[in-house]
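Lab channel / #folding
Pinned by the channel admin:
"Please post every new chain as: sequence first, then the structure tokens as a reply. Keep commentary short and put observations after the output so the thread stays searchable."

First post following the new format, from NK:
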Amino acid sequence: MFDDKSGAIAGVGTLFYTLGGAVLVELGLGGHVRVDENDKGLNGLKVHAVVGDPLSDPVLRAAHEKVAGRVRGVQTLLIEIGTGLRETVLDRLVERGMLRQETKKTLGLFRSTATTAGDTGHKKALVEKVRAVLIDGAEPDAHTAALIGLLSASGTLPSLHRSVPWSGKVHQRAKELERGSWGAEAVNSAVMRTVAAVSVGSVIAVTS
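Reply from TO:
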């Protein structure tokens, strides 16, 4: 979702939903949380923690502890887990060399931080997997299916057009994978609600 040329992050306005969804999906794939398809409230499917050894990854561990605190709907957890996660994820990507951050001074007074691409090998490998599934018809592994589902749900998949040419076929296949993931579906619902709220607000502002 990070554009290597411009430094912009696709879907930044609703990024916390996507990040929260990504963490929940990762916990689900690892068997650390589960959902009951018959237990759905106003905030979506109820998410339950699966008891086990503490997770070594601090982001996943913190999220698992939130889920274990009390049973909540997935929509609520998207916000609780995803809020503030952008900075944590960016810091980790910088630590791993995937991104670089440079601090500059403007007019010798004002500091600004620019984020640029670092080692893009990992991203290229992921995009190739996405392309193989959506363009070449390859069967995805669980993580690739979840990744495509989240990209589709967040509305950011078209931003990969240079690597994964956008088409009706690509859209349809991505939506199929999205519907196969409760985490991705929750992100889609949350993003759509946000877009609708912003649209209504814009109409009211213009009318006023």
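NK: Residues 158 and 166 are 6 Å apart (CA to CA).
TO: also worth noting, DSSP finds eight helices and five strands in the chain.
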